[in-house]
Write a structure and sequence with these properties.
By secondary structure, the chain is mainly alpha-helical. Helix content is about 45%, strand content about 0%. The chain is built from 14 helices and two strands; from the N terminus they run ααααααααβααβαααα.
Length: about 325
């Protein structure tokens, strides 16, 4: 009994600690210290994203990749730290772009409030505001994150779900971050916008087990179109293809419709239909109003944005997002 009581004290203490760290992530965290911070971010996004709407997909992907490695701490933005190769160099991150956009926003915020607003919060806000600007869902972004000081290429390669992952691997990587099957399906819905480079899916066209090397789980007509018009050779490393053809700048349900027609571009997209729970959620989304998807997606985005955040005295507030403070 004494052992059980001691364990209970540990659990209560742990819960209190978790509660205290979460309490420091709050809506309008900068209301007093930098009251115009969120407006500065939003105004810049609203001015520039309409001229480059494809960046919306880039920023939500960057936010996702950031949160899956050491939590949402802007470690994905860092150049080399302590001689280590950074997350930017990891295979999933080599096609990320828009770092200069983030640097410009950071400089505007720094001009208003030096050393107050973290790059982690700026990235999180840019991701949300970019999606809203192209007509997608709004979600709450509680702030108060602090910036990490470590960025490691190996951790990124090991923790970020890849386009060739099967369902078991996807769910394990999501579970590692405190996310579940529902979050996996909903967050994958961000593939309704954006582009993918051929190496992310060309093995489904040339190096699989079906006739002509085509993945048998991929619709044959869709595969033929991709081979004829997009990735014309197995070695094409530069051509891009829409994740959601015909709707790549619209945040809608057509991505899920394509999954049910075996037209998901990535192996990881197709994998969502191989699990009964995941498939049931896809069908529920498709039989519900778009507003239902938006509401559920928003919940998962806010949940993801809380992964292993650094608050209080942890980490630092970087002066420049690509470099730890000297």
């Amino acid at each position: 009994m004494a052992g059980t009581g001691f364990l209970g004290i540990i659990v209560i203490g742990l819960l209190a600690f978790l509660g205290s760290t979460q309490a420091q992530l709050q809506m309008n965290f900068y209301a007093k210290s930098c009251p115009k911070a969120e407006k500065i971010v939003s105004d810049y996004v609203k001015e520039h994203i309409p001229n480059a709407p494809s960046l919306a997909a880039t920023f939500i992907r960057m936010h996702f990749h950031d949160c899956f490695v050491r939590g949402c701490d802007a470690s994905v933005l860092l150049n080399s730290t302590s001689g280590q190769s950074p997350e930017k160099n990891a295979v999933p991150n080599q096609t990320l772009r828009g770092f200069d956009f983030i640097d410009r926003v950071k400089s505007l915020v720094e001009a208003a409030c030096p050393a107050i607003v973290s790059c982690a919060d700026i990235l999180t806000l840019i991701a949300r505001d970019s999606i809203v600007t192209i007509g997608g869902p709004f979600w709450r972004v509680p702030t108060g994150r602090r910036d990490g000081v470590v960025s490691n290429v190996t951790e990124a390669n090991n923790n970020i779900p890849g386009p060739f992952s099967n369902f078991t691997t996807l769910l394990r990587l999501f579970n590692n971050q405190g996310l579940n099957t529902t979050d996996l399906v909903l967050l994958s819905g961000a593939h309704t916008i954006g582009l993918a480079h051929c190496p992310a899916f060309s093995r489904r066209l040339y190096n699989s087990t079906g006739p002509g090397g085509v993945d048998p789980t991929l619709d044959s007509e869709y595969a033929a179109n991709l081979k004829a018009n997009k990735c014309k050779t197995p070695n094409d490393n530069t051509t891009k293809s829409e994740m959601d053809p015909g709707s790549r700048n619209t945040f809608d349900l057509s991505y899920y419709t394509l999954l049910t027609k075996r037209r998901g571009l990535f192996q990881s997209d197709a994998a969502l239909t191989t699990d009964s729970t995941s498939l049931a959620l896809i069908n529920q989304l498709l039989s519900s109003p778009l507003s239902f998807f938006y509401a559920e997606f928003s919940k998962s985005m806010e949940k993801m944005g809380r992964i292993n955040v650094k608050t209080g005295s942890e980490g630092e507030i970087r002066k420049q997002c690509a470099f730890v403070n000297s």
